TrEMBL record:
The gene is aroC. InterPro entries: Chorismate_synth, Chorismate_synth_AroC_sf, Chorismate_synthase_CS. CDD domains: Chorismate_synthase (cd07304). Its cofactor is FMNH2. The keyword Repressor does not apply. Its EC number is 4.2.3.5. This reaction introduces a second double bond into the aromatic ring system. It catalyses: 5-O-(1-carboxyvinyl)-3-phosphoshikimate = chorismate + phosphate. GO terms for biological process: amino acid biosynthetic process; aromatic amino acid family biosynthetic process; chorismate biosynthetic process. GO terms for cellular component: cytosol. Pathway: Metabolic intermediate biosynthesis; chorismate biosynthesis; chorismate from D-erythrose 4-phosphate and phosphoenolpyruvate: step 7/7. This is Chorismate synthase. It comes from Thermoleophilum album.
Amino acid sequence: MAIRFVTAGESHGPGLTAILEGIPAGLELRREEIDRDLARRQLGHGRGGRMKIERDQVRVSAGLRHGRTLGSPLALHVDNLDYRNWEERMNPWPVETAVEEVHLPRPGHADLPGLLKYGHSDVRNVLERASARETAARVAVGAVCRALLRELGVEVRSHVVQIGSVRAAVPEELAVEDFEGVDESPVRCLDEEAGAAMVAEIDRARKANESLGGVFEVRAWGLVPGLGSHVSWDSRLDGRLAQAIMSIQAMKGVAIGDAFDVAGRVGSQAHDEIFWSQERGYWRATNRAGGLEGGMTNGEPLIVRGAMKPLPTLTRPLRSVDVVTKEPAQALRERTDSCTVPAAGVVGEAMVAVVLADAYLEKFGGDHLDDLRGALEAYKKRIGWRR
Ligand SMILES: Cc1cc2nc3c(=O)[nH]c(=O)nc-3n(C[C@H](O)[C@H](O)[C@H](O)COP(=O)(O)O)c2cc1C
């Protein structure tokens, strides 16, 4: 991998940190752009009280000087403002007061397997890290990768296509410009009518003490053909994207292009015929493959979807067992969102941006942004790529 990153931090601890390695020198970063993505991750109808407390902003403590990357690892931090309410319970150091342990694992969460695996008695020692608060750090990393991709002519966007039983109508072709107002929609949905129905579905679910899942879609434009490779299982870009999306908390499925729909069609209706013209070079009239063939980009827009399960923390908890007494009990009632598909889409964008930036750096290399640009231009010339 050309890019590596690791995050650290607990949901109610002092904050989240990401170390990102592999970004070339000379890339301009704008704090407000990273903060904008962090704010987008906090939005969406169906969020709980926590997001009213947090005002996520990035702090950079390494790898950047006067707004330009140095080529050294970037250290990105997002503080947890809520830590002030948890200082005793989540202090990294011993505290005087006795802190009550949590003994009621939630079905569908990391609580029970994590407790068994790590030998804890307190479920909080697992849930704090399993929480998707961690995705704030990923979004900061994704914003850096997005800045790199923009320099290479690549744009990444997302929208929500399903919440609960409500599905949006999705046009076959979407341009970057079509996504302009998407963050103004309370559910980040491009189909206004479906968006309103999604809001109503979330309200109904919340009233019934239920949570909801759904599906988001990430698209990327401006990709050159040949990112990723067919030659080995772990160099296939479809596999790398699937892993990146599946690594997001609560994702239970990934689809590339028409995916599950295509599985039920005949071959002639499943693929994208190849055309060539003087002005455009190679082009396709359809994009059923979602921009990937043989584990490589084919020059068409990338289309990836993530299917999210309903959130496991419920305001009317499911049955569980007290891990100390082994008596039947109701699962922990922790403060929770009721639907976070809109936010998950923003995290999906970040993860796709990481994979694509990695694929560009792997193919074109470069310690300075200009080296990367130069190698990209030389490749485009060799293959006669005009877009
Ligand atoms: C953006 C985002 C926010 C989330 N918020 C919550 C939440 O408030 N409550 C909850 O129970 N799960 C939430 N989750 C999902 C859990 O973190 C996830 O279900 C849990 O870590 C178990 O992992 P698994 O579902 O992948 O098996 C959220 C996920 C994402 C992507």
